[in-house]
Write a structure and sequence with these properties.
Elements (H helix, E strand, L loop, with lengths): L2 H8 L4 H30 L4 H47 L1 H14 L4 H23 L11 H22 L5 H27 L4 H28 L2
Helix pairs in contact: 2-3, 2-6, 2-7, 2-8, 3-4, 3-5, 3-6, 4-5, 6-7, 7-8
The chain binds zinc ion.
The site of zinc ion has 6 residues, from helix 3 and helix 4.
Amino acid sequence: MTLEEVYKRNLEHRTHRAGWLRAAVLGANDGLVATASLMIGVSAAKVPGSFLITAGIAGIVAGAMSMAVGEYVSVRSQNDIEESDRLLEIQHLAIDPEAELLELEHIYITRGLTQDLAHQVAVAMHEKDALAAHLRDELGQHPHTKARPVQASIASATSFIIGGLVPFMGAFAPNAGAKAWSIVGFAIVGLVMTGIVSARSAGSPVLRPTIRVVLGGSIGMAITAGIGHLVQLSGI
Ligand SMILES: [Zn+2]
């Protein structure tokens, strides 16, 4: 196998795009389940159709905001941790490069190199780019897996909205009795789709993750439908 073929084969790996795709699928899934559950709960309480639509829109907007903020904060704090690790590493390299060289050597020994070879590799790495070697081999930081907070927050908010619009369409069924069931129907179709997309993107078999996603979503909808029904029965 030539170097070029090896390089091409490496491109088949999925980690490079796993970050944003995972966020998008999770967002769509959240949008589906949260919106469907909310609307089924509301419709189980036998409210007028316009209430149901309003509840759906409010739920989608609130969820998208919460996803955007949550994702931004979580990615930012992850990046902050990595950044302070990076600064610490720069300090260590400036204060005691010898000790850092030994540290790198030790890492290569634990990965299976002999002491001599580990020393040679560590020296070569230090000559080329000591910081890059420490970030990669000591801290496991890779530039291509670094998440971008704004991009991640827009992606999850957008996918929440797309996911939420699927059960929302179910609320436009012609008569009141059919609305709840058509919301459930739309939601299940949507869940099957996110299940398939997430399985395909992970390169794993499709059936199991899809069943898992559909079951999880259905439990959520069943619980809120139960609550909505109880509220309606109790006449609050
Ligand atoms: Zn180090």
